[in-house]
Structure formats: C-alpha cells, structure tokens
Amino acid sequence: GVVFPYSPRLGRYNLNFHEAQQACLDQDSVIASFDQLYDAWRSGLDWCNAGWLSDGSVQYPITKPREPCGGKNTVPGVRNYGFWDKDKSRYDVFCFTSNFNGRFYYLIHPTKLTYDEAVQACLKDGAQIAKVGQIFAAWKLLGYDRCDAGWLADGSVRYPISRPRKRCSPNEAAVRFVGFPDKKHKLYGVYCFRAYN
C-alpha cells in the first residue's frame, strides 16, 4: 500500500482526530498506523507537517533533517509529538490505501475544465472523478505517470510522476500538488476512476 499526507482545502492543521479519520475515508483510504508510517519513512517519505495516526498520536517522517523540521543537526526518523486531545487539537493526517479495484485514468478531453465540468465529464465517461487515495495508489502500486494537472474529487489539482523529468517533477517521483484552485477556472483536466464490479 501507500501512505500519503493529507490536509483539506482549509489548509494545514485544520483536522481534529475524528475529522482526520473521516478525511481519509472520504479519499478512499484509512488513517495510517505508526507501522505503516514507519515503513513509508524507511521507503523515503519526508514530510514536515505533523499528522494524526490511528493510535491517536501525532507524528511526522523526516529523511532529510533541516531547520524547520526539528533542526538540521538531528537524526532522520519519525518525529513524535505524542498524544493530543482528539476533539480540540488540530493537525493534518497520514492516510493509507492499498485498495485498488478499478481503473484510474486521465480523461482525454478537447478543452480544459472547471471543477463541475470535470465531475460531469467523468460521469459521462461511465466513471467518477478520482479521489486523492486513488491517485496515490495508481502512482505507487501501478507506476502511473502523467504530466497533466487534473482535478480530483476534493477540489484539489494534482498529477502523478513516476519517472522524474524536467518540467514535471525534476528531482523525485511524487504525486505533485498544484493546490485548491477556484473551482470556476477552466485550467485543468481531470482524473477519473471506474470501479470494477
């Protein structure tokens, strides 16, 4: 499977524990366990924002120590913030997905789309607009690679790069995050997901 950090449209550190659990479910995944995050860190995950884990702890994985992430003279590792109030404390979340039962694809369409047009274009193609968990699963488990920014169900725009190259993701294989643009802008394509019955 694959672990991915998630924060909502509101920006970082906006989820209490219960909202974090729901955010992962909404993206076709579950909240990650410490062991899953640890394995992801050993595989190179480096993320400087703290996120909830399934045991109620708040942690983050660092492979390249640097000043804003615990200090540059510290050792690489999973940094532990400890246990926080599940109702009042707010962080990001680490989600985990290994579930891939369908076809993930970039929809070839004659024009760029607004968010609502993107949702409709996938439906018209017999699919649904893809979720964040689905783009991470396609990228990590299938090596999906596409240098086209596309809308996803949560209103974010991302694209998956398995083979780093100039102008796409020059230094690393990654799911690149463009942001949460205004949903009325016709600037992007769309990623769709068609479940196998």
From TrEMBL:
Q: Which gene name does the record give?
A: Hapln1
Q: What family is this?
A: Belongs to the HAPLN family.
Q: Give me the segments passing through the membrane.
A: none
Q: What is this protein called?
A: HPLN1 protein
Alphabetized, the UniProt keywords read:
Disulfide bond, Extracellular matrix, Glycoprotein, Hyaluronic acid, Immunoglobulin domain, Repeat, Secreted
Annotated S-S bridges: 48-69, 147-168
Species: Scopus umbretta
Query: A Gene Ontology molecular-function term?
Result: hyaluronic acid binding
Instruction: Spell out the subcellular localization from the entry.
Output: Secreted, Extracellular space, Extracellular matrix
Q: Which InterPro entries match?
A: C-type_lectin-like/link_sf, CTDL_fold, Hyaluronan_bind_Proteoglycan, Link_dom
